[in-house]
Amino acid sequence: MTEQQRYTVISKRDGYELRRYPAHMLAQVEAPGPFFKAGNRGFGPLFRYISASNISMTAPVLQAPNAPKQHTVSFVMPAGATTVPAPADDSVRTVAVPERRVAARRFSGGSSVKRYQRNAEALRAALARDGLAVDGRVYFARYDPPWKPGFLKRNEALVALG
Questions:
Q1: Residue 46 in contact with residue 112, Cβ under 8 Å?
Q2: Which of the ends of the chain has fewer CB neighbours closer than 10 A, N or C?
Q3: Angstrom distances, CA of residue 29 to CA of 24, 26, 84, 125
Q4: For residue 103, how many other CB atoms are within 10 A of its CB?
Q5: Is-above-0.90 flag for pTM?
Q6: Contact between 29 and 45 (Cβ < 8 Å)
Q7: Do 48 and 130 contact (CB within 8 A), yes or no?
């Protein structure tokens, strides 16, 4: 079974939950293109990196839109990894992420940019309603392989809190 990134649920709210993520490591690439093409482009170099480095695949795969056609795609390194091998591919970088509070809105369904956008907007609206300040843009987590039926897929819209 694929290891999933650990977190602690702080509280459940109407439309989202507050979580605390421990410090962790990411491997990332910048990928051009619309949402799903960028995700596919980013996956290859990251998968080659973990395969060459003998690092286990974990879930979720993270994707953060930076511009209309530019995304950061990230693999979460296994729990407890404080250092990882240097990537041979210059397009891959590793990043240490400190412990942080995050708001998360979970949703299921197949791959649809509109579904991701609707959930990002709903998360932002719920946080504004509750008076919570965000620290950055909404990003997305995909937990399942592409061949899993859409109604069974776990997806999330997330944003770090200030």
A1: no
A2: N
A3: 17, 10, 15, 29
A4: 24
A5: yes
A6: yes
A7: no
Closest by CA position to 37, among listed 142, 118, 113, 147: 113
47 φ/ψ sector (left φ>0, alpha ψ -120 to 50, else beta): alpha
User: How is domain 3-160 classified at the architecture level of CATH?
Assistant: Alpha-Beta Barrel (3.20)
Listed in sequence order, the DSSP H helices in the chain are 35-52, 113-129
Cα-based distances in Å from 81 to 55, 76, 94, 121: 10, 10, 11, 33
For 97-152, the pLDDT digits (tens) are: 999 999 999 999 877 889 999 999 999 999 999 999 999 999 999 999 888 998 89
> pLDDT digit string (tens) for 63-92?
999 988 999 999 999 999 989 999 999 999
> Rounded to an integer, what distance in angstroms lies between the CA atom of residue 81 and that of residue 94?
11
Amino acid at 16: Y
**Contact in structure between 62 and 8 (CB atoms under 8 Å):** no
Q: What is the C-alpha separation between 92 and 109, in angstroms, rounded?
A: 29
